[in-house]
Structures are given as structure tokens and as C-alpha cells.
């Protein structure tokens, strides 16, 4: 729709301009730092940073209904920079001029109500938000759209050249970082550090295809992350992990979209988020809190973080009584939710802060953490896949978390659940084939359930002339082969002859 066709009360607001006063805020010493410098830790105390809009009060001068109406209408505008996560510009990063926004098709991922057979099996009305339907096939694109748009703005305004963007990754961060960096000019190069053998072949192919420099290192993600943190402390690099607070801002868009897709009524909703480095759970809570503060929603949904028992530092922390909580990293064991296989989440201090604020704002406990077994992750993923929903292993983790939350009474059958399928299932097909081959017993401790196993059936009719690639068959051979192959397929299917 063209701007002049919008109703008079929203027309002037469709195209936003920078209006916020964004600064870095240190979680530790609480000092603020100017927004146009590339900081990844507090320059005074080394603390973790978040971006704060010092003028957020201006958003509250408008009623919540104004923002709901504006965001709903803005979806109709065919303006590239507003098609993706920046559709929620005023709440996201109202500092970056629209001309610097990079849009590659991220965001506005579908929210799909699960078919009845799955909802009945789980025992609750449930939705899946398919974040695998982002350009690099994971939610990480939301954060990268913000972080790289910001970087583009900084490069332009400070006339920087030779910027090297780096990240450590369990596979999806590097795919997203390399993709968004490749859309920028020659002043940006990207380099990604991966734990060798701990990302899937599809994930490895992504940054290679996008032209990034790809380094494979020994160990697991946590080891790569330490190397990248060292690089960002001692060398001139732009860090693209979620330690970069601009990424968190971009990922808040998940919360804004979810609110919009459920008509801004979230009071009876429980949102399930698989947790690895804990950037996403931070962003989801941060976005929901902003919506609440600005009256865009009137009740906060429950937010339920899910971890595998093979990588569960956040769960362990919250499973203890409040007075006894001490954060301790864990050594991870193999997990099919490999993208979340992190033992020392960089964003842990953010989670602690956000969760406290979340519960305080809600006036009751609304943030929970549950733990699931590897077996449940695979079984739930496969069951969803057999019900019209191709979710990834991390989505399976979320669905397993939902079942666990129901079991624990954290969620009740009358409520609605939203499971974040954080990546596309096709990135993780190796785990499916290993499950089908019952090859996940070692390390993962997963046994294949025969009713979930599915394997191709070889048809090669004995005695019939078989087709060969590149060689033409005679008409008679072809007819003989077709009849023999059809007979074998019919036999395997138990078909009756007409
Ligand atoms: C990164 C990632 C996660 C974990 O998100 P964090 O922000 O690191 O907690 C979960 N699922 C997928 C598919 C991911 O790529
Ligand atoms: Zn500080």
C-alpha cells in the first residue's frame, strides 16, 4: 500500500525517523556509554552491556492502542527497510536511519496452530513459530539484521574501513553473520570460528557459501567463544555474537511479532524458548517487557526457558532456592539440540536481570526454566514432524519442555503454548538419520523408538531389465521394468489388484 493511502491517523507515522536516545548500559557498574562506539563489554569494568533507550518515556506518551494500530498498518507498507524486524522500528533501534537498514527477508515468520492430532497428544492448544523460515534458516537473522544495520550506520558515519566482523558459533550464528556481512560493501569482511565436527554439514556450508573466512577449532562452542572474546578484547574486530547488545535488540522482534500474531493478547500464553548462550531468552523477555511498559500488551505471558540435561547451567541455577543460587558453568555432553549445546552462556547475567524484572513487573512468577532429556527432544521433534510441523531439534527441545511444564503444573491445559522452532529442520537431518539407524545411543543416550523410525525401502525387481542413468531403454525393456517395479511396490504396500 502507498503511504498516501493509509488512514489519516497513521499516515504520518508509517515512515519512522530516528527518535530514540540509545546508549550502552553496563549491567555491572550501570554506567552508560555513547552508542556510536563498538563496545562488546563495559570499557570501565568489563561488564555485560544492553542497549537502553533513554527516551523510552516518549513511547509511553501514546496509548498502547496507537502502537498496535501503527504496527498492524505498517505491515501493509511495501517499504523494504520496514518489511523485516524494523517494522517495530520505534521499539527496536530508533537510532539507525532507514537508509542503513539491511533487509534480506528476515522476520514475520509464520505462527502455525498445531494440527488437532498433535494438540490432543500434548494436551494443550499449541502453536509453533517457525523461525527456521528466516533467510539463513534460523532466528539468528533477526539479531544480525539489527547488528549489521547498526554496523553499516557506524561505518558510514565514522567513515571506517577494513572492518573485520567475527563470531563463534554452534552453526547458526556463523550462517547468519556471514550472510548479512556478505550484503555489505568491501569495507567489511567476516570470519567465523566453529568447533570442528560440532556443526552440521548444512551449517558448515552456509558461511563457506557466503564467502566468509571459516576457522575450525578443537573443543566445543564454549572454547571458540573464549577465543573470540580474546580477539575482541585485544584486536580491532567487530564482534557478532549475542554478547553484542545490538543483536539482542534485533531478536526482540520475536516478541513483537508474537504479540501481533496473537492480537496482543498474551495473558493466557506460555512461550517456550530453547536456551544456549541465552541471548534469545534475554531478547524475548526484554521485548515483552517493553510492550508491557508501553501498554501494547496488558499481561505478560509466561516465558519458559528449556535446556537439555546435557547442557543445563541456567536450569541448574534456577532449580535451587533463591538464597542458594550460584551460577556455575557446566561441561557439556553431546546434545541433538546442538545449536544450544553451551555450558557457559555469555548472557547469563542478562537472564538473571531480565527474569527478576519480568517477575517483578508481572507481580508473580512468570519466568521458569525446565530441563528435558535428549530422548524427549528427538521423540518430540519426530512426532511434530509427523503432524505437519517440520520443527528442528531445538524446536523438539521446546516441545519436550512444554510437556515437562504440563507435567510440573507450570502450564495448564486451558492455556495456549507457543514453541519456538528456532531453526529449519533441514539443517539437522543428520540427527534424524542417526536416530533411524539407532546410532544415538553413545553419548546422546537416545534409543530409537520403532514406531518413530522410518527408512527408505529399496525396490530393485529381480530379473527385470533395470534402467541406468544416461542409457536409453528399449520400449519392451521399459515396459517389463515398469510392470515388475510396480508389482514390487504394490506387494510392499499390500495393494489389491483392480
Ligand atoms: C543459537 C540457537 C539457539 C540458542 O539461542 P541462544 O540465544 O544462544 O540461547 C537455539 N536454537 C538455535 C537453532 C540456535 O541457532
Ligand atoms: Zn561497567
Describe this structure in words.
By secondary structure, this protein is an alpha/beta fold. It has helices at residues 8-11, 57-60, 64-74, 89-92, 116-122, 140-158, 172-182, 201-209, 221-234, 245-251, 253-261, 279-293, 313-318, 348-362, 374-385, 393-408, 429-436, 475-493; strands spanning 22-26, 32-33, 49-53, 111-113, 125-130, 163-168, 188-195, 213-217, 238-239, 269-274, 302-308, 367-372, 416-421. The relative contact order is 0.11. The mean pLDDT is 97. Bound molecules: pyridoxal-5'-phosphate and zinc ion. Zinc ion binds next to loops. Pyridoxal-5'-phosphate is lined by residues 138, 140, 170, 172, 242, 274-281, 339-340, 392, 394, 422-423.
Residue fraction in strands: 5-15%
How many structural domains does the protein architecture include?
A: 3
Arithmetic mean of pLDDT: 97
So what's the overall shape? globular
Just name the CATH architecture of the largest domain: 3-Layer(aba) Sandwich
Number of strands: 13
CATH class wording of the largest domain: Alpha Beta
Share of helix, binned: 25-40%
Please count the helical segments. 18
Hetero groups in this structure are:
pyridoxal-5'-phosphate, zinc ion
Strand-pairing-aware structural class: alpha/beta
Q: Which parts are unreliable, with pLDDT below 50 for 5 consecutive residues or more?
A: none
Largest sheet, in brief, is: 6 strands, mixed
Amino acid at each position: 500500500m502507498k503511504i498516501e493511502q493509509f488512514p489519516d491517523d497513521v499516515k504520518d507515522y508509517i515512515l519512522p525517523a530516528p527518535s530514540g536516545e540509545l546508549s550502552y548500559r553496563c549491567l555491572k557498574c550501570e554506567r552508560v556509554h555513547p552508542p556510536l562506539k563498538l563496545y562488546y563489554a563495559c570499557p570501565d569494568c568489563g561488564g555485560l552491556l544492553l542497549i537502553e533507550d533513554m527516551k523510552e518515556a516518549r513511547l509511553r506518551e501514546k496509548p498502547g492502542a496507537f502502537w498496535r494500530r501503527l504496527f498492524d498498518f505498517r505491515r501493509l507498507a511495501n517499504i523494504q527497510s520496514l518489511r523485516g524486524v524494523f517494522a517495530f522500528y520505534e521499539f527496536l533501534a530508533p537510532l539507525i536511519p532507514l537508509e542503513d537498514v539491511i533487509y534480506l527477508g528476515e522476520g514475520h515468520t509464520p505462527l502455525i496452530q498445531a494440527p488437532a492430532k498433535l494438540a490432543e497428544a500434548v494436551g494443550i492448544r499449541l502453536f509453533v513459530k517457525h523461525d527456521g523460515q528466516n533467510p539463513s534458516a534460523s532466528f539468528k537473522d533477526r539479531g544480525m539484521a539489527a547488528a549489521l544495520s547498526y554496523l553499516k550506520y557506524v561505518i558510514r558515519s565514522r567513515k571506517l574501513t577494513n572492518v573485520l566482523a567475527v563470531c563463534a558459533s554452534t552453526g547458526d550464528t556463523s550462517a547468519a553473520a556471514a550472510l548479512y556481512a556478505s550484503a555489505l560493501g568491501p569495507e567489511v569482511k567476516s570470519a567465523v570460528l566453529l568447533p570442528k565436527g560440532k556443526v552440521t554439514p548444512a551449517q558448515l556450508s552456509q558461511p563457506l557459501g557466503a564467502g566468509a573466512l571459516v576457522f575450525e577449532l578443537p573443543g566445543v562452542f564454549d572454547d571458540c567463544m573464549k577465543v573470540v572474546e580474546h580477539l575482541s578484547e585485544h584486536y580491532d574486530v567487530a564482534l557478532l555474537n549475542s554478547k553484542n547488545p545490538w543483536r539482542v535488540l534485533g531478536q526482540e522482534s520475536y516478541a513483537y511479532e508474537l504479540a501481533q500474531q496473537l492480537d496482543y493478547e498474551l495473558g493466557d500464553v506460555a512461550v517456550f524458548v530453547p536456551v544456549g548462550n541465552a541471548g534469545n531468552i534475554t531478547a524475548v523477555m526484554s521485548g515483552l517487557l517493553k510492550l508491557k511498559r508501553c501498554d501494547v500488551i496488558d499481561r505478560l505471558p509466561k516465558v519458559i526457558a528449556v535446556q537439555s540435561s546435557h547442557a543445563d547451567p541456567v536450569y541448574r541455577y534456577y532449580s535451587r532456592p533463591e538464597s542458594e543460587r550460584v551460577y556455575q558453568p557446566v561441561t557439556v555432553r553431546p546434545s541433538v539440540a546442538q545449536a544450544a549445546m553451551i555450558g557457559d552462556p555469555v548472557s547469563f547475567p542478562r537472564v538473571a536481570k531480565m527474569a527478576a524484572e519480568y517477575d517483578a513487573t508481572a507481580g508473580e512468577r512468570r519466568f521458569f526454566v525446565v530441563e528435558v532429556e535428549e530422548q524427549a527432544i528427538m521423540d518430540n521433534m519426530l512426532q511434530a514432524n509427523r503432524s505437519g510441523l517440520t520443527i528442528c531439534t531445538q524446536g523438539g527441545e521446546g516441545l519436550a519442555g512444554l510437556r515437562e511444564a504440563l507435567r510440573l503444573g507450570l502450564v495448564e491445559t486451558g492455556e495456549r503454548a507457543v514453541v519456538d522452532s528456532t531453526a529449519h529442520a533441514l539443517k539437522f537431518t543428520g540427527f534424524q538419520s542417526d536416530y533411524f539407524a539407532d546410532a544415538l545411543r553413545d553419548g546422546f543416550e537416545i534409543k530409537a523408538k520403532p514406531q518413530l523410525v522410518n527408512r527408505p525401502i529399496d525396490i530393485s525387481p529381480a530379473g527385470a531389465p533395470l534402467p541406468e542413468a544416461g542409457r536409453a531403454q528399449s520400449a519392451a525393456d521399459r515396459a517389463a521394468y515398469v510392470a515388475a517395479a510396480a508389482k514390487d511396490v504394490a506387494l510392499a504396500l499390500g495393494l489389491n489388484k483392480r
